[in-house]
TrEMBL record:
Pfam families cross-referenced by the UniProt entry: GFO_IDH_MocA (PF01408), GFO_IDH_MocA_C3 (PF22725)
Stretches assigned to the Gfo/Idh/MocA-like oxidoreductase N-terminal domain: 13-126
InterPro entries, alphabetized: Gfo/Idh/MocA-like_OxRdtase_N (IPR000683), Gfo/Idh/MocA_Oxidoreductases (IPR051450), GFO_IDH_MocA-like_dom (IPR055170), NAD(P)-bd_dom_sf (IPR036291)
Keywords: NAD
Protein name: Gfo/Idh/MocA family oxidoreductase
Length: 348
């Protein structure tokens, strides 16, 4: 009954600041999200993808706020997240900020404090949590389909994106994998060890190979780069009953089961360690991740307005969670620079 009442309430007045590659998609999905009305957009550098449509194109967050918005999406470059986010918090606007939460841990801490102290919904756009393959994988892990989980390995590789200029591959792409691993495992990073390269003539790293240890004992590995001619987005979770492989480009989820039939070829059996079982590509619904992310944000805002917990917003990423992810990313950068293992938040 509460849900029905919320649907009859006036639509949330939404503003969008940042009309680049991600901003244009946010504009489209905001227009398609029930219970939300996109009323204003802003970007100091114009509207290259014509995302504004019939709305006037504003230049600043101050102009955006004068439109009387309830919620906002912040899709400006990472270095501007703090400035724009603090202005939105000061005005009492619930905000979804693109990942990473900020350019530095200190800036992220200020954003967390600004939103939490005012009782506002502050979310971070770690969109991979909403990928259908990973959503299904999370549920299956929670149900015990793999038994005890041993390892989570990710590969996120592809060509250099010209849109990124202010951070390296760890804070841009790598934060996806840091967040999704902690979320799938329901644990936090205790330590990381990383190595990076700088091959494209920029001040920031463009390739990283990193390992991690989670508090619950799961180990992780991450290969992330902007130097590969092929695009790859793969997460492999290995446990005592087999392995899941999630391809988030296609939203496919495949289960590789440990078998009960012994392998008679001794050299192969010795090499594999476990017997080979069934391989099944699982049939799962595939809604658009960005749409699910916006619906989760909307539901969290409606819940906050009603003074109750945000029920059903599975996978929602709070600013505090986004800050934890950024702490791990900065620990990786320190580890690579100093050639040592680093505990997130300690010496980073």
């Amino acid at each position: 009954m509460a849900a029905a009442n919320e649907q009859q309430a006036p639509a949330l007045r939404a503003g969008l600041i940042g009309l680049g590659m991600m901003g244009r998609h946010h504009a489209r999905v905001l227009r398609e999200t029930a219970g939300v009305e996109l009323v204003a957009v802003a970007d100091a550098y114009g509207d290259p993808h014509r995302a504004a449509g019939t709305l006037p194109l504003l230049a600043t967050v101050e102009e955006l706020l004068r439109e009387g918005i309830d919620v906002a999406v912040c899709a400006v470059p990472t270095g501007l997240h703090e400035e724009v986010g603090l202005a939105l918090a000061e005005a009492g606007v619930h905000t979804l900020v693109e990942k990473p939460i900020a350019a530095s841990v200190a800036a992220g801490e200020r954003l967390v404090e600004a939103f939490e102290s005012r009782g506002l919904v502050g979310a971070v756009g770690h969109i991979e949590r909403y990928n259908p393959a990973l959503q299904s994988l999370r549920r299956r892990l929670a149900a015990g389909d793999l038994g005890r989980v041993f390892q989570i390995a990710t590969r996120r590789q592809g060509p250099f994106p010209a849109r990124i200029a202010d951070v390296g591959v760890i804070k841009d792409l790598g934060t996806h994998d840091i967040d999704l691993c902690a979320w799938l495992a329901q644990s936090v990073y205790e330590s990381v060890d990383a190595r990076t390269t700088f091959q494209s003539g920029r001040e920031h790293e463009d390739m990283v190979a990193a390992t991690g240890q989670l508090a619950n004992g799961i180990i992780t590995s991450h290969l992330v780069n902007w130097l590969s001619p092929m695009k790859e987005r793969v997460t492999v979770v290995t446990g005592e009953k087999g392995a899941f492989v999630a391809d988030t480009l296609t939203a496919d989820l495949t289960l590789y089961e440990n078998g009960t039939v012994s392998t008679e070829w001794d050299s192969v059996a010795n090499f594999r360690g476990v017997s080979e079982g069934n391989v099944t590509r699982l049939a799962i619904p595939k809604p658009e991740p960005l749409r699910i992310e916006h619906e989760a944000f909307r539901d969290a805002v409606l819940a906050a307005r009603a003074g109750r917990p945000a029920a059903g917003a599975v996978g929602g990423v709070s600013m505090r969670e986004g800050l934890q992810t950024l702490c791990v990313a900065e620990a990786m950068i320190v580890s690579a620079r100093e050639g040592r293992s680093v505990r997130p938040g300690a010496g980073s």
